[in-house]
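Incident log, support desk, overnight shift.

02:14 A customer reports that sequence design results differ from what the structure should imply. Their input is reproduced verbatim below. On-call engineer (initials T.W.) acknowledged and began investigating.
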C-alpha cells in the first residue's frame, strides 16, 4: 500500500512524521484514527520507564478511538464504518491512520461519544476492576482514593456512585480548590479532602458520617499512600491497591496498619489483567458493555479534557506533564 499516514514518533524528541501504511493482508484492518489521549503511561513509555516498551522506531499512544476504513478478507469481527479501540497496550494510537491486526482491536458501539470512547480502554477499565476484584463492596460501603481528580479517580467516583458506594477523594491543594471540589462532587464524590487536611486530627470526623473504607486506591505513592491506608482511615483487614506512582516516591506504610489492622497491600495493572484474560474475552466484553451502559445512562462521563489538534501535539505533551492542569489532553487526529 503506498498511501501514507501521519504519526507522532516520540522517541527522537517527538516528531510528526509521514510513515507508510503496512500491507492490509488477510487479517489487517485499516483504521483512520479519530482521537487519542495522552496518559501518564504514554509519557512513561517515551521515557523508557514503562513495563512494556515497543521496538524502535515506534509510534506513541496506548489508547484512542478510530474508524475502520477497510478490512482484509479474513477479518470477521469488524467491517468498514465500525468504531474501534485498542484491545491491549502498545498499539501506537497517535497516528492519523494505520493497519492493525484484527485481534488488537475491540469494536465499540456507535452511540458512545467520541471522547468517552477514546478514553475508555485504560482508566475506566482500571477503575471498574479495582472496585470489583479486591473487596466485596456493598451499597453504603466506602472507598478512599488519592489522585481523585485523575482520569482513573474521576472514573472511580462515577462507577462507585452508580453502585451506591461512597467515595472519599483526596486531592492536592491548589488555588482553585473549590472549583475542583465542585466538579468532583458533580460527578458523585461524597467527600473531597486535600492531602494536607487529611493529615489533621479533624479528618477522622469524616467517619462519623460514613463507614470507614474497606478499600483504598493509591495512584500516588509516598506519604499520600501512607495516609490513605492509615489505621485512622482504612478498616480492619481492608485492602490498599496501588495502581500508579505519580509522586515517584516509594509506597510507605504505617507499621500499625499492618500489625493492628492487618491491612492487605495489593497492586493492579490493567495491561496484565487484559493479558491474563485474553482467552476469556467474555469477561472483557462484559466490562466494556457495563461501562458503555453507564455512559448511556449519563453515569460515566469522559474525564475533564482539552481537545488539541495533532499539529499542536507538543503543547499537548507539555500540558500533560504540567501539575494541577486537571484536563486530560486529547489529540484530535
Ligand atoms: N495500573 C494500571 O493499570 C493503571 C491504569 C491507568 C492509569 N494508571 C496510572 O494511574 C496514574 C493516574 O493516571 P491518569 O491517566 O488517571 O492520570 P491523569 O488523568 O493524567 O492525572 C494525573 C493525576 O496525578 C496527580 N499527580 C501528579 N503528580 C502528583 C504528585 N507528585 N503527587 C500527587 N499527585 C500527583 C494529578 O494531580 P494534580 O491535579 O494535583 O496535578 C492528577 O490527579 C498514573 O500513574 C497512571 O500511570 C495505572
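02:41 Re-run completed on a clean worker. Output:
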Amino acid at each position: 500500500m503506498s498511501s501514507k499516514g501521519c504519526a507522532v514518533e516520540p522517541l527522537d524528541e517527538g516528531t510528526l512524521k509521514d510513515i507508510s501504511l503496512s500491507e492490509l493482508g488477510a487479517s489487517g484492518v485499516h483504521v483512520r484514527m479519530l482521537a487519542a489521549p495522552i496518559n501518564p503511561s504514554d509519557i512513561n513509555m517515551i521515557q523508557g520507564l514503562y513495563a512494556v516498551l515497543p521496538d524502535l522506531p515506534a509510534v506513541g499512544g496506548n489508547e484512542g478511538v478510530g474508524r475502520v476504513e477497510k478490512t482484509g478478507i479474513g477479518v470477521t469481527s469488524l467491517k468498514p464504518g465500525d468504531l474501534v479501540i485498542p484491545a491491549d497496550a502498545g498499539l501506537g494510537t497517535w497516528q492519523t491512520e494505520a493497519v492493525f491486526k484484527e485481534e488488537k482491536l475491540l469494536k465499540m458501539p456507535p452511540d458512545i461519544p467520541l471522547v468517552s470512547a477514546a478514553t475508555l480502554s485504560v482508566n475506566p477499565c482500571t477503575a471498574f476492576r479495582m472496585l470489583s476484584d479486591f473487596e466485596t463492596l456493598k451499597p453504603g460501603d466506602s472507598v478512599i482514593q488519592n489522585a481523585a481528580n485523575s482520569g482513573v479517580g474521576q472514573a472511580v467516583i462515577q462507577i462507585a456512585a452508580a453502585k451506591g458506594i461512597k467515595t472519599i477523594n483526596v486531592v492536592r491543594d491548589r488555588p482553585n480548590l473549590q472549583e475542583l471540589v465542585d466538579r468532583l462532587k458533580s460527578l458523585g464524590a461524597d467527600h473531597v479532602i486535600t492531602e494536607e487536611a487529611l493529615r489533621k486530627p479533624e479528618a477522622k470526623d469524616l467517619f462519623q458520617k460514613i463507614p470507614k473504607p474497606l478499600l483504598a486506591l493509591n495512584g500516588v505513592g509516598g506519604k499520600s499512600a501512607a495516609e490513605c491506608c492509615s489505621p485512622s482511615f482504612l478498616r480492619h483487614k481492608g485492602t490498599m491497591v496501588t495502581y500508579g506512582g505519580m509522586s515517584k516516591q516509594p509506597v510507605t506504610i504505617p507499621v500499625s496498619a499492618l500489625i493492628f489492622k492487618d491491612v492487605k497491600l495489593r497492586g493492579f495493572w490493567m495491561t496484565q489483567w487484559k493479558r491474563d484474560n485474553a482467552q476469556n474475552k467474555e469477561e472483557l466484553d462484559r466490562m466494556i458493555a457495563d461501562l458503555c451502559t453507564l455512559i448511556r445512562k449519563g453515569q460515566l462521563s469522559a474525564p475533564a479534557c482539552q481537545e488539541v489538534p495533532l499539529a499542536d501535539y507538543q503543547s499537548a505533551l507539555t500540558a500533560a506533564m504540567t501539575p494541577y492542569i486537571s484536563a486530560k489532553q486529547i489529540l484530535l487526529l
